[in-house]
Automatic annotation (TrEMBL):
It catalyses: [(1->4)-alpha-D-glucosyl](n) + phosphate = [(1->4)-alpha-D-glucosyl](n-1) + alpha-D-glucose 1-phosphate. It comes from the Eukaryota. This is Alpha-1,4 glucan phosphorylase. The lineage of its organism: Eukaryota, Fungi, Dikarya, Ascomycota, Pezizomycotina. Keywords: Allosteric enzyme, Carbohydrate metabolism, Glycosyltransferase, Pyridoxal phosphate, Transferase. PROSITE patterns: PHOSPHORYLASE. GO terms for cellular component: cytoplasm. GO terms for biological process: glycogen catabolic process.
Length: 824
């Protein structure tokens, strides 16, 4: 049962204005004479924050008092986006504030857009963590997030002459949503050596000595739930020199530079988010980040547990820790170290506690993304942890040897240590061995990990250790906030906003599929969202696009496996076809706007080449008088969460076209469908569950299947392969210099023509183009088109992150919700 929400503090526009103005004048010490939109944003945020912190404090007290099992979600990335609109939704006074702001002469939309995104993530994995926090809070689970407080989030992308340029994202100038806890600090050790001593009973104990200490300082961010007082905590750690100051000895003896340098070196640990997504590079600073954050978080979790005075065997019944990919895997040897070296438990007892506490989520099968650390580097930075990992491995291999005495190769295949030069630690194996459950993020992906990277482990541990939790998204941000008019339309038909708490209620919309009035409003809303995006495109790119055209969107990180190159080759194919048409034929076309957005990792040349090609194609196509409205090509700069909130509701078709078997889940596919856009996609990731839920008639699937990928790759390398003729025509246009200097794109083309076409672009090209033609045909039949869109929305209930979190809670964490205490 949901507690009835009763607002406190300001309740009228006038009271809100008073609070807002008070904060501007006192908290910010700004004069009202030059009160601009930013100051008004700040005042508004602080007014809502005041109300948020009361709920937050109460929730934390309640959780401590209730003394039940808690969940800790460890993630190096939390891609939160903006917080104010979400705070207003959850505190529940947005209308009042809007009225107040308008009396002060401002529009709510302008004020909300003053906020800088909290962009502490790369893409899907980080945004999933943010959606999970929203669901955990909304469902009243006692849960904390633990992460790093990066001074610089994901870089800002600028497009200069068609090329990506990276600009630092300094986002902390004004952040009203964080609370520095200067009193909550943890000393974190690095380097040094391990000594063995005998204790009084003659047992040997290992002590990690020497090295250097860096201090972790806690910064807390409130995470409010929807229509509940429950407000969880996201704790982010910042690094600081251990003394908190520069070295006074050095300072007093005049070595100013080196004393400041030490301090800067400490602060470097939490300075910047690594901008690689799906590419592991083995950098020492990254390993330092991981240990720093794991050690601080575990110290904090253990400290909280110890206050309960329970015995250690209760630890796994009080604490569930979820590892978001392998990035927090060091938490496993760290907990073992705390229990054995510091708390004096024997190895077996400690290991039993450790392996009951952790759950591990895998988010990728791409081999280049699997984390490995070189043993020498690890030995240098974390000598005691290396010993512990060796012991974990030894015990594990003994067990495997006993169970499979005849399979000698098995031992080297499942060993945590890869016998290469240098030796490497396979973090995914350590995470798996140290956890009681391992899950993938969509059905196909969860099946694939059992037959590929973790095949041998299914034999060792049995199939029950592996499970699937198909990803989800929060309907609060991705429907209600991003598309308020659609949310209101749905609410008007379903008799309220309950669907935002139970998304399966959307199925009732199917009753309105044939309702004329409903269909008209649904279409008007899509059109208005497209007008809004067209306005943004005009401002940002200087290109006018027709809002009645079919908007075709692909926004996500740029990666070869996601195949933006397939999309842009398809666009070129379309352009060549238009050029070959008579003016009469062109008039019959469904006009199309191809919209791209996404960042390339700074060192990923192929991805940067794709961005360049998209921009070059746009330059040619958008200025070609023959083409006019028939085709426009747009690259939107600096794709991020707040831009996604504008783009997602405005799409007619979005592209989820990864090589089958490579995209673990995808989550934007869910966002587009929930907002009444259709998708073109491969049989990959969660596209498969989406198809099952919405029906094959409502999705445009194409391309080869995952089970055929291996053979196809083989045929490229050893067979006689002939390139599809229309793809050849696209390549000819590129080499003729139609889109500028052809040499810029030779690596991209040669990767397909000469180097085995690893992502099978040529194999899927014909099928992709044919499906795009089907989309044009389908769009011409507007009645059927809108039936598909509405049916899709109605059948998206499964993809709420609330469903997802309930599945984790039941199958992996074994935790129960803790409803907020009713007020007396
Ligand atoms: C890996 C690495 C490797 C080391 C350097 C930094 C870094 C940063 C992120 C990652 C994670 C790659 C895995 C990932 O992002 N997977 C995505 O997870 C989404 C949520 O489950 C899923 O929807 C996407 O399909 C999947 O690609």
């Amino acid at each position: 049962a949901w507690k009835k929400f009763t607002p406190k503090g300001f309740t009228t526009p006038e009271e809100f204005e008073k609070e807002c103005v008070r904060h501007i004048e006192t908290t910010l010490a700004r004069s009202l004479y030059n009160c601009d939109e930013f100051a008004t944003y700040a005042g508004t945020a602080l007014a809502f924050r005041d109300r948020l912190v009361l709920d937050w404090n109460k929730t934390q007290q309640n959780q401590t008092f209730a003394d039940q099992k808690r969940v800790y979600y460890l993630s190096l990335e939390f891609l939160m986006g903006r917080a104010l609109d979400n705070a207003m939704l959850n505190v529940g006074m947005k209308d009042v504030a809007a009225k107040g702001l308008s009396e002060l002469g401002f529009r709510m939309e302008d004020i909300v857009s003053q906020e800088h995104d909290a962009a502490l993530g790369n893409g899907g994995l980080g945004r999933l963590a943010a959606c999970f926090l929203d669901s955990l809070a909304s469902l009243n689970y006692p849960a904390w997030g633990y992460g790093l407080r990066y001074r610089y989030g994901i870089f800002k992308q600028e497009i200069v002459d068609g090329y990506q340029v990276e600009v630092p994202d300094y986002w902390l100038d004004f952040n009203p949503w964080e609370f520095a806890r200067h009193d909550i600090t943890v000393d974190i050790q690095f380097y040094g050596h391990v000594s063995k001593y005998q204790d009084d009973n003659g047992t040997s104990i290992s002590v990690w000595e020497g090295g250097e200490i860096v201090q972790a300082v806690a910064y807390d961010v409130p995470v409010p739930g929807y229509q509940t007082e429950n407000t969880n905590n996201l704790r982010l750690w910042a690094s600081k020199a251990a003394s908190g100051e520069f070295d006074f000895q050095k300072f007093n003896s005049g070595e100013y530079e080196s004393s400041v340098a030490d301090q800067q070196r400490a602060e470097t640990i939490s300075a910047v988010l690594y901008p690689n997504d799906n590419l592991e590079r083995g950098k020492e600073l990254r390993l330092k980040q991981q240990y720093f954050w794991c050690a601080a978080s575990l110290y904090d979790i253990v400290r909280r547990f110890k206050k309960t005075k329970r015995s250690w065997k209760d630890f796994p019944t009080q604490v569930a820790i979820q590892l978001n990919d392998t990035h927090p895997t060091l938490a496993i040897p760290e907990l073992q170290r705390i229990l054995v070296d510091q708390e004096g438990l024997d190895w077996e007892e400690a290991w039993s506690i450790v392996s009951k506490t952790f759950g591990y989520t895998n988010h990728t099968v791409l081999p280049e993304a699997l984390e490995k650390w070189s043993v020498p580097l690890f030995q240098h930075l974390l000598p005691r942890h290396l010993q512990i990992i060796y012991d974990i491995n030894l015990n594990f291999l003994h067990y495997v040897e006993r169970t499979f005495p005849k399979d000698r190769d098995m031992l080297s295949r499942v060993s945590i240590i890869e016998e290469s030069n240098p030796k490497m630690i396979r973090m995914a194996f350590l995470a798996l061995i140290g956890s009681h459950k391992v899950n993938g993020v969509a059905e196909l992906h969860s099946d694939l990990i059992k037959t590929t990277i973790f095949k041998d482990f299914v034999k060792v541990f049995g199939p029950d250790k592996f499970t699937n939790v198909t990803n989800g998204i929060t309907p609060r941000r991705w429907l209600h906030q991003a598309n308020p008019r659609l949310s209101e339309l749905i609410a008007s038909k379903l008799g309220g906003h309950e669907f935002l708490k139970d998304l399966t209620l959307l199925h009732k919309l199917e009753n309105y599929v044939d309702d004329k009035e409903f269909r008209k409003e649904f279409q008007e809303i899509k059109y208005a969202n497209k007008v809004r995006l067209a306005k943004h495109i005009k401002e940002a790119n200087g290109v006018s696009v027709n809002p009645s055209a079919l908007f075709d969107v692909q926004v996500k990180r740029i990666h070869e496996y996601k195949r933006q190159q397939l999309n842009i080759f398809g666009v070129i194919h379309r352009y060549l076809a238009i050029k070959a048409m008579s003016p009469e034929e062109r008039k019959k076309l469904v006009p199309r706007v191809s919209i791209f957005g996404g960042k390339a990792a700074p060192g990923y040349w192929m991805a940067k080449t794709v961005i360049h090609l998209i921009n070059q194609v746009g330059k040619v196509v958008n200025n070609d008088k023959d083409v006019g409205d028939a085709l426009k090509v747009i690259f939107l700069e600096d794709y991020n969460v707040s831009k996604a909130e504008i783009i997602t509701p405005a799409s007619d078709i979005s592209e989820h076209i990864s090589t089958a078997g490579t995209e673990a889940s995808g989550t934007s596919n869910m966002k587009f469908c929930l907002n009444g856009g259709l998708i073109i996609g491969t049989c990959d990731g969660a596209n498969i569950e989406i198809t099952r839920e919405i029906g094959e008639n409502n999705i445009f699937l194409f391309g080869n299947l995952a089970e055929d990928v291996e053979d196809l790759r083989h045929s490229h390398l050893y067979g006689t392969y002939t390139l599809d003729s229309s793809l050849q025509a696209v390549f000819d246009a590129i080499s003729d210099g139609m889109f500028g200097d052809a040499s810029h794109f030779s690596a991209l083309v040669n990767g397909i023509v000469e180097h085995g076409d690893y992502y099978l672009v040529s194999d899927d090209f014909a099928s992709y183009c044919k499906t795009q033609d089907l989309i044009d045909e389908a769009y011409k039949n507007q009645e059927e088109w809108w039936t598909k869109c509405i049916t899709t929305v109605a059948r998206m209930g499964f993809f709420s992150s609330d469903r997802c979190i309930d599945e984790y809670a039941e199958m992996i964490w074994n935790v129960e919700p803790l409803p907020p205490k009713q007020e007396q």
